[in-house]
Amino acid sequence: MDSDDYDDDDDMIEKELEIKLDITKKSRRINRPVQFADQHGHIMEEVRSDPEMQSQYIPRNPVSRVIQCAAVSSENEVNTIRADFISQGMNHAEGGWPKDINPAENDQTMRFRKKIEKDENYVNTALGLCGIMESCIKQNNAIEIYEDYFNEVDEATDCEEPKAKTVNLYRDPEALDGHIRPVSAIAWNPDGEQIAIAYCNLEFLAITPETPSTSYIFNIEDPTKPLLELHPPYHLVSCEFNPKDGHLLAGGCYNGQVCWWDDRKGGKPEGEINLSVSHIEPVYKTMWISSKTASEFFTASTDGTVLWWDIRNFKNPVERLVLDPKIKDDDGSTEKAQGASCLEYEPTIPTKFMVGTEQGNVFACNRKAKSTSERIVGMYRAHYGPVLALQRNPCFPKNFLAVGDWCARIWSE
Predict the structure, then answer these.
(1) Helix and strand tally (H, E) in the chain?
(2) Planar angle of CA 276, 257, 400, nearest 5 degrees
């Protein structure tokens, strides 16, 4: 090593010795309280800015700083397993009989009553019950039933405001490819676990050759992917599940064709009607008929006709009705017919149905009429514009609701 190196080491040792400080304190001053005093501040060290370095300084803009003292947490939302609840009631008209006694047999009940009345405990039990019943009757007589005893409303009995919450969202799988298609119809399966969704744009010249014609059946518990993909011959406008057999689905297309599916056999139609014998305009409504075979349904179209079909012989319509109130004999002409926009059918009245038209009229029809002119029983001028929906009152079938031109009206037959 050079002599210069030894000199540097000596300088470093001297500096280390210089910064050492020995503090001594007398033993009598140890463990005594420390007393602090105010003192004016003074500058111990000052480092001035270097102009050369300041000229090289580049301000940083923008400056982002993230400070998080709390623990990082995340929130997830899942659908739990559905719990099925059943509400059951009982009309207790008569009871308390032994298993070997049939309450419907008067002879058995009379013999059992005579046997009980001869028992010694019967009289004592009846007298005891009379005292309890007498106190209840006196209590009821002492209270005025029409008087309001409780002015304040209990929170437990307070009614909540009606509200709805989105449970699932079913997206069109074709939307991923950029095809935006409106929903034209939704049909619920009778078991309540599946829905069929038909997609079709009903605006004029809105359908292009690139627009897909597929429709889908979803499981309501799994909105991520369709349960079955339907392939109709053209864009599906209306669809309806068979109320007695949830595997059968009927539908009408935009070009007037009618078809039906069996979801157990895939997405291709099991039956498809040729254009020459089907409707010539969009089929706006499809409904199944209550029958013993559960194989018949009827369709309504804006071409002014209502057609009945049977899937057992799905080649030609079984019956045909032209929506012309002045027609006498069905000669096949639909020049003056009114285009159908909706249907209404109540299974409890299997021979009657109602048709709403684009002209705002509601036709009350009877399928089993003898002549063509008698099929249209009556006509109601319900709205100024097209009738969009019809629905009978389930409790009072003579009353029905018609929706159109921004209003809803209740009618009675």
Answers:
(1) 4, 19
(2) 120
Answering whether pTM is above 0.85, one says no
For 161, the 3-state DSSP assignment is coil
The sign of the CA dihedral 220, 222, 228, 233 is positive
Alpha-carbon distance values, 257 to 233, 278, 300 (Å): 8, 6, 11
Query: Who's near 213: CB < 8 A, 6+ residues apart?
Result: 231, 232, 233, 234, 235, 236
Tell me the C-alpha to C-alpha distance, in Å, between residue 146 and each of 138, 143, 149, 154, 190: 17, 9, 9, 19, 45
Between CA 387 and CA 413 the distance in angstroms is 17
End-to-end CA gap in the chain: 122
Q: What is the mean pLDDT of each run of 10 residues along the chain (413 residues)?
A: 55 58 76 81 85 82 80 81 77 72 82 84 85 82 70 66 86 86 94 93 87 93 92 94 93 94 92 92 93 91 93 92 80 80 90 93 88 84 93 90 93 88
